[in-house]
Write a structure and sequence with these properties.
The chain has 111 residues and is mainly α. The protein is built from four helices and no strands. The protein has helices at 2-28, 34-51, 59-82, 88-106. Helix 3 (59-82) runs antiparallel to helix 4 (88-106).
Amino acid sequence: MPVLRSIALFLLAALAEIGGAWLVWQGVREHRGLLLAGAGVLALGAYGFVATLQPDPNFGRILAAYGGVFVAGSLGWGMVVDGFRPDRWDLIGAALCLLGVGVIMYAPRAA
């Protein structure tokens, strides 16, 4: 159960961070208004809090592993929201990142 909770928290963190960055992008770069940008800033702040809920006590490990989730999640967001079509190298890279997440977070460790 702790692994499933951790994965759910990584997914929630990705939604907050990627969604927040996208909202800032829309507000500023696409000239859709400061309200979107402000909502993005709030979502980015929420991401920081979600990361603290991970069961592992090591900040560096959590953020390093989250990097892989961010890579894969960013490609997924682009596909769903912006119509981006990743090529095979994007998909291979994302799979390697997620493999890294698994090794960093969930490999058996000596107590």
